[in-house]
Amino acid sequence: MNVLVVGSGGREHTFVWKLYQSKKVKKIFAAPGNAGMTAHATCVSIQADDIQGLLKFAKDNMIDITIVGPELPLTLGIVDEFQKNNLRIFGPSKAAAQLEGSKVFSKVFMSKYGIPTAPYEVFDDVDDARVYIEKEAYPLVIKADGLAAGKGVYICMGKAESLSALEEIMVKKTFGDAGARIIVEECLMGQEVSILAFCDGNTVKMMETSQDHKRIFNNDEGPNTGGMGAYSPADLIDDAQMKEIYDHVLVPVLEGMKVEES
Q1: Cβ atoms within 10 A of the Cβ of 149, count?
Q2: What is the mean pLDDT of the segment spanning 127-155?
Q3: 213-222: long-range contacts at Cβ-Cβ below 8 A with a sequence spacing of 24 or more?
Q4: Which residue, of 68, 105, 187, 196, is most buried by count of CB atoms within 10 Å of its CB?
């Protein structure tokens, strides 16, 4: 097969590295790729959010399947566009990608379908948000609604930090349009574990547990980053908890998305 990998980061580099090991793969292209990928793939100068450029490249180069790494092209509808043109592509539809692309959408979705989540409020006016945080108990978590490269989340231990977060997101617009709306939610304390799964629209297959290192300094101090590394498996939960996550998170998400896309 001829395979196109969309993206230029470590995630996409791993895709390229693993695809190269498959006897089923004839040629790998990466758009835009990075210098490290050139040992295994041909990099092409098309940006990950250039949907029409990627579509034309896939047609012109007889790409058998496209694998999308970054969130942005998924939220822009690359999967829908490729499928309309009868091209195979791996990734969620534009509608399903809202779960990653909009934290407000995700919170409303979870509330609607009974999926456990921290209590929250949504604001699109900074003054309303300021009034709200004046009377809330701390710590609080303040999140920019849209994609912010993993950096749009502030864990605030007091009112001063909360006001600073509002200033960064909604006044200074550090994250651009991604901060037009925010979520203010209860801070859930404890260890974080990531549960990823593959889904074909009907079946969910869970992967191994993992844990991401988000905060920039030791002892979980400093602001969140896009990720400071991760490890897997993360032996933080047992089989019973994994089943609970499957039954009460993953399956309800799948069933809810079926309803939303119908």
Answers
A1: 13
A2: 90
A3: 214/150
A4: 68
Helix (H) or strand (E) holding 79: helix 78-84
Rg (CA), the chain: 20
Rounded CA-CA distance 112/91 in Å is: 24
191: its two tokens = 């260890």
Using the predicted structure, report yes or no on whether residue 102 has a pLDDT greater than 90. yes
Q: Give the helix, strand, coil percentages of the chain, each rounded to 5.
A: 40, 25, 35
Tokens of 174: 């550090």
Question: Dihedral angle at the C-alpha atoms of 41, 25, 78, 59, nearest 10 degrees?
Answer: 90
* Residue range 198-219: mean pLDDT, rounded: 89
**Stretch 174-193: mean pLDDT:** 92
Indicate if the pLDDT at residue 228 is higher than 80.
no
Residue whose C-alpha is closest to residue 65's, from 16, 1, 6: 1
Amino acid at 71: E
